[in-house]
Amino acid sequence: MKKILVCISGASTAGLGIKLYNLIPPEYERYLVISEHAKVVLEKEENIFINDDISAPPASGSFGIDITFIVPCSMNTLAKISVGIADNLITRAASVAIKEKKKLILAPREMPFSEIHLEHMLKLSRLQNVIIAPPIFGYYNKPKNINDIEMFLIGKWFDLAGIENNLFKRWQ
Ligand SMILES: Cc1cc2nc3c(=O)[nH]c(=O)nc-3n(C[C@H](O)[C@H](O)[C@H](O)COP(=O)(O)O)c2cc1C
Predict the structure, then answer these.
(1) 80 CA closest ligand 1 atom index
(2) Which of 79, 67, 144 is nearest to 110 (CA)?
(3) Is the pLDDT of residue 43 over 70?
(4) Closest Cα to atom 20, ligand 1: which residue?
(5) 88 CA to middle of ligand 1, Å?
(6) Does ligand 1 come within 6 angstroms of the Cβ of 114?
(7) What is the pLDDT of residues 133-164, one digit of tens each?
(8) Which domains does the chain have, with CATH numbers?
(9) Is the pTM of this model over 0.85?
(10) Which atom of ligand 1 is closest in space to residue 74's alpha carbon?
């Protein structure tokens, strides 16, 4: 069974990360890490690790996480990942994904992005296994409400991870 790790750092769309986690199909083994700042808005669920617990299983490459999502990814977490800081479970899991060449999908959330943010994104995007996929939506699938927008975003992130889904209307 493939293992998926979803990390939620303290950016404003933290609820999206929880929805993404809940929509992962049952054929995957799923794990969740939330940062201190994300905790304020989130409830605890099965397989949730505390971000301070640097000894939790996803901190080790031998645990074998196949796909890591950081949704949303704060600029703080993005910067740490970009320079190799691994001071909590989320940044350590990102560092593990990078060194093990496993898929790492980052959803940086800020508006606007500074040159520093963009430099971090460019640097990470140049690593073959890292995908920068911010929570940016379009009008072409005619969203009627926030749920439609969220399902579009999660569907796109699942596509990037190779997770089959019908969460959004595809362009015909
Ligand atoms: C309500 C709220 C919304 C925030 N939204 C964002 C955001 O969208 N993007 C971001 O980079 N930081 C945002 N921040 C700031 C981060 O939470 C802060 O930089 C924090 O240190 C991130 O820690 P973490 O990366 O360990 O989660 C927000 C903070 C609060 C309180």
Answers:
(1) 25
(2) 79
(3) no
(4) 10
(5) 15
(6) no
(7) 999 999 988 999 999 999 999 999 999 999 99
(8) 3-161 (3.40.50.1950)
(9) yes
(10) 11
